[in-house]
Design a protein that fits this description.
The chain is built from five helices and ten strands. The protein has a five-stranded antiparallel β-sheet with strand order 1-4-5-3-2, covered by helices on one side. The protein has a five-stranded antiparallel β-sheet with strand order 6-9-10-8-7, covered by helices on one side. Helix 2 runs antiparallel to helix 3.
Length: about 240
């Protein structure tokens, strides 16, 4: 899956970028540990997982999504990476390079982790999670500002995000971005996306579930992001 040349290259860019500490793209918003098993440093799982993460940094930016597995049996590591749909490739790369350096220590010695960053998200685990909606891991983030008319705002938000969810589930990149007019000169912007291991139907189900959580978590909030293990939604009024 991975040549030693590539590994050296990634090590080099990782080293250069980190030593300069120039990361606007890097900002962890949350994380969760997802496995019931542990591993030890430098055991075969550790090696497989690290190689897999390097592969994902290399593989993901051109399309915004990457997935893969490495190793055999109980040492096999599964992982996927997703960049925010509106982020240029260079910032996707920056985010993932930072993410692979950050994620390893978050859950150690747990065999699985998912972490969400401003421009990307990364997940690895010792079990095959591809194609299955992750309902367990999510992170909610909202701005302090409230809207003046929560009821109609909530309706507009649900309508916009639901139509984007429909669009995303049918699109090859499993993402959709759109906006609608609000009061005065304000607009409501929405973005939804799924990890592309999901089927079209599962993507829609994942997004629909997150959208239906909005009234409970974030009623009246102008700007909301719900990050999930399999799908993300966000809206902001500007
Ligand atoms: C995994 O490691 C954690 C932290 O060291 C420990 O609390 C936990 O009991 C371990 N779990 C297993 C299944 O060994
Ligand atoms: C994306 O990366 C470029 C090049 O490093 C940088 O100039 C730009 O500010 C980044 N964009 C964002 C939105 O962070
Ligand atoms: C928004 O509403 C919440 C709950 O009513 C309140 O605690 C908070 O201070 C409000 N935020 C602003 C910026 O006014």
């Amino acid at each position: 899956m991975l040549s030693s040349k590539l590994t050296s290259f990634l090590f080099l860019i990782t080293f250069v970028l980190c030593s300069q500490n120039v990361f606007a793209a890097y900002e962890r918003v949350g994380h969760a540990c997802v496995s019931s098993e542990n591993f030890t440093s430098n055991d075969p799982y550790d090696t497989n997982m690290k190689e897999l993460l390097s592969y994902l940094v290399y593989e993901t930016p051109s399309t915004g999504f990457g997935m893969g597995s490495k190793g055999e049996g109980q040492n096999r590591a599964y992982g996927s990476a997703l960049c925010r749909a509106d982020v240029p490739q260079v910032n996707c790369t920056d985010c993932l390079v930072q993410a692979i350096n950050d994620i390893g220590s978050l859950c150690w010695p747990n065999k699985g982790a998912v972490a969400w960053y401003k421009y990307c998200q990364l997940k690895y685990s010792s079990s095959d999670h591809f194609g299955v909606i992750d309902h367990s891991n999510w992170h909610v983030n909202y701005g302090a500002e409230n809207v003046s008319e929560p009821t109609s705002f909530s309706q507009k938000t649900t309508n916009l995000l639901s139509s984007l969810a429909e669009e995303a589930s049918m699109s090859s990149k499993m993402s959709a971005i759109g906006n609608v007019e609000l009061y005065g000169s304000e607009k409501l912007y929405g973005l939804v996306q799924c990890t592309r291991d999901l089927s079209s139907m599962a993507c829609k189900e994942c997004l629909t579930r997150s959208i239906s959580a909005l009234p409970n978590c974030c009623s009246g909030k102008k700007s909301v992001r719900i990050y999930g293990g399999s799908c993300d939604i966000r809206h902001v009024a500007l």
